[in-house]
Amino acid sequence: MTACPGHIYVHVPFCGRRCSYCDFAIAVRRQVPAARYTDAIKAELVTRRIGPADGPLSTLYFGGGTPSKLGVSIADVTKLILNTAGVSAADVREITVEANPEDISAEVVKAWREAGVNRVSLGVQSFDGRVLEWMHRTHSAAQVASAVEILRGEGIGNLSIDLIFSVPETLNRDWGRDLEGAIALDAGHLSVYGLTIEPHTPLGRWTARGESTESPEERYEAEFLEAHRRLTAAGYEHYEVSNYGKPGLEAVHNSAYWRGVPYLGLGPSAHGFDGHRRRWNAREYTRWDELVGAGLDPMEGDEVIGPAEAAAERVYLGLRTSDGLQATEDEFRHASRYMEEGWARRLQDRLVLTPQGWLRLDALAAALT
Fold this sequence. Notes:
By secondary structure, the chain is of the alpha/beta class. It folds into 2 domains: 2-259, Aldolase class I (TIM Barrel, Alpha-Beta Barrel); 308-367, no CATH class. It is 39% helix and 22% strand. The protein has 15 helices and 19 strands. It has helices spanning 34-47, 73-85, 106-115, 129-134, 141-153, 175-185, 202-208, 217-233, 252-259, 285-293, 307-319, 329-334, 336-340, 355-358, 361-367, and strands spanning 2-3, 7-12, 14-15, 27-28, 50-51, 59-64, 94-99, 119-125, 158-165, 189-194, 237-240, 243-245, 264-266, 271-273, 277-281, 299-304, 325-326, 344-347, 350-353. Strands 11-12-10-9-8-7-6-2-13 form a 9-stranded mixed β-sheet, with helices on both faces. Helix 3 (106-115) links the parallel strand 7 (94-99) and strand 8. Helix 2 packs parallel to helix 3 (106-115) and helix 6 (175-185) packs parallel to helix 8 (217-233).
């Protein structure tokens, strides 16, 4: 039997609509099969012989997709996993649910809270109605404030907000206004992502047909740095390329990924890592459901992380956080240009990127490996 590691990720694929930029493994459903999904998670735990944790369970994270589409059934899945791990909710430091504002109600949040959920990540993306419509989002700006009020009223005050920057200029989006809207909500954590164009998405097809254009690199950089200035001035610490937290409110679960520690992945397309091998489940919901329903391991592939891969990941993961990379003298020499340009600095034995350096993360990581 395999013991639960200290961190568990659960992929909930259901969405009401595919966002224009989305390339994730989702299943668009008008009626979400919550009971069937819960049974399938239970079947995966049994099939993979997942048992009680060897040590404390630090985090449980529901990502997607749109986990909030499960409604009160999030509570059922939470209890199922905690029982399997042999822990109580009070012993888990962080239980996060990704949610859309329109799914938030007092009844749902109360059920989550009673099951142990203590953190919610809201997919806001923008406060501009035109931008939300272009993104195919299914909420309004007004629903964001309402969702925040309900969450706090029902006892979940640890909130994160997602925003997307660098949308096409033709939308005339005021990025500064969106940042101020997020700051005004006084959430403890913000995640800020640059829009990327994936070919097999509505946005990818619009771009291929010339109906939409990618934002220029200069604008991407300007909006990234504007977020850094405004959010740090508002008391947020820019602790990872895309993430800002008020002191003590950094995302514990995501930070585990950046430290390269083991974690368990459940659900369609979910990845897991045991410290030596990375595995991933069947991507599509129907295939995953079919496999676990037949009592089969839903693994679609795996890879052993050898010395070369581990060395590359050490560099990339270290450089993407404000803690930086514990570097060798040879690595400092290779990074000398970045330090001269003001993109990186040396803090004792650590190489730490500046915000300008994070914009060049991939290039520097490649130069050091």
